[in-house]
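FORM 7B - TANDEM STRUCTURE REPORT

SECTION 1: FIRST PROTEIN
SEQUENCE AND TOKENS:
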Amino acid sequence: MQLLKGLYGIRTVGFREESGRTHTFSFTQSMLERDIFIEHISELPIQEEDDEDEEYDPEQENINDSEEEVYGGKLSVVMRENDKLYEFLLYHDVLDIDKPVLLAQTIVFLVKVIEESKPDRLISYLRELSTDPLIPHEIIGDKKFKQSAIQLIEIKLQRARELYLADQADQN
């Protein structure tokens, strides 16, 4: 999919957690300059190898049944605009967008919306598309939640920039 996104000038950087959760950030050069990233998170637990030599233990099975495995996916736009932070959740479900063509089409569409929108209209467009916008400066009354939201978005933006810089260093 990287080659296809490359046709549109879209770069992708990311990392995988030990849990199997994958984080990717897609962006163009102008999005990078504007501090706007499309984040895709995929929750697919790492499959453990079966140990055929291990004896069957019914009590262990009950323990494993109670542990809930998490699956799913999330797609959002994370950004800073006029010193305000935003995260626009566009997709979140127990099923990931596992078809490369659907994910690529969605990312290309979002890039076009971001790049072709006038800055004063972009927030309105993304708010319209979002299923759950997180806009810290609009949170009133709950200072702890507001501060947590700011930190979450700041960490995501910082992580995306750091991954980009590490990718640049690897290419040189």
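SECTION 2: SECOND PROTEIN
SEQUENCE AND TOKENS:
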Amino acid sequence: MLLRVVLLCCIVAIAMAANLKGSNNSDKKIMKKLKSQGYKPIGGGYWQKSFDYFFANGAHDPKLWIKIGDVAGNVKSLGAGYAADSFNGYFRGKKLDISGNLKVLKANGKLTWYAVDSFNAFYQGKQIETSGTLKALGFKYARDSFNSYYAGKEMKDSNGELKVTKCGYAYDSFNVYYAGKQLENANGKMKCVGGGYAEDSSGNKFYKGKEVDSSSISHFNKKEFKHIGGGYALSGADAFFDGKRFDAAGPGRRANGLQVLKGPKGKFSNWAKSALGNLYYKGERQTGLVGQDITLLGNGWAQAGHKTFYKGESTRVVGKLSVHGNGYATDQFNGFYKGEKINLMGQAGSFKLIGNDYAGTQLFAYYKGEKVQGCTKPMNVFGEGYLTCLGSVFYHGERVQGCVNPQKSLGHGYLQCQLSYVYKGEKVRHAQPTLNPLTVSKDGEVADRRGNKYVNGERE
């Protein structure tokens, strides 16, 4: 029987795809810049420049990429971190010892981290011992003619044919598994309910591999148990959040008719409301809010009646709350960063996002919620991490010494000032814009007029 390889889950697939193309405006700018430098993406994090090949390894700076040596012909990305040329195989830029053509296995139509050639099997680029042809099952499970595997390791206790559900549970003739671990009190075939919930053939319920906590387990009805979104689930008698019972949901009970509320972007939130008007956050009933309407403002903020909440915690605000994004919000007088109050010195009306995790008012600046000490009248951001204020420059919220009148960002962490250069907030020695200027190439190579090269701001 053919062995099947572990399914690479959607999140992993997206993470791999992030090396191929950007998913927001910032990534698109980076892609455009790399292409202007002569780099061509060939998929899965692999790049080509002329006759050279690289693996980006999640980095934006080509100087940090892995260069692939001794390439035989064109390199082709196979997906899931694997690649091959005419004779060699690679995983995340590192050469594999292969025999014959390398093939990445799929499960349920999606790539996994398992790969095989004519004689060998691999998991995340590491060779594994198998008996017969390998076949992917999904969620890191695989099976060959005799054995089952999880994350490339043999499952010693598995008996019989291993089957994997669409929600990550696996079962064989005698045992049930989640994330490769055997579950106690689980019997027979597993059925996915949704949102991480599942039930076995005996009607026992599980949430992400743990048995559902219920004081009335005998009241479960297979047809009535359902996931309703946001980690919430209902049975005929009980309500659950993340697998833990939090209230009674039978007729006339507090959680009866529970519905999960959606945020401004249409996604399920951690808030839920029952038919009797009880409000819950992550399964915890919010006393004093019975019958109140709640408005979800986004980024963790909500308002019900005259109360405002940040991720379920009551937060005192003055007047209308405005959510700006990037963790910031303001009321009539104060600012907030991820729920923590910021003293805006009475300038909430002029608050705005500046960029690079900076925000500011007419007179003051803030970096990740902390006031930037010494900054008066924030002005512009340069490159990644630099902020100019009246007469001062800051990098990641810290004052930069030796930079007067910043001129422009040179990229790759370098900033040109009127009389000096700085690299990631530190002054670059030996270089000066007028006498010995720096040149930063598109691929990040730095040199001064005298031919000296610089690495990480230091002259070699």
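SECTION 3: OBSERVATIONS ON SECOND PROTEIN
The first helix runs from residue 10 to 17.
The first strand starts at residue 4 and ends at 5.

SECTION 4: SIGNATURE
Preparer initials: ____
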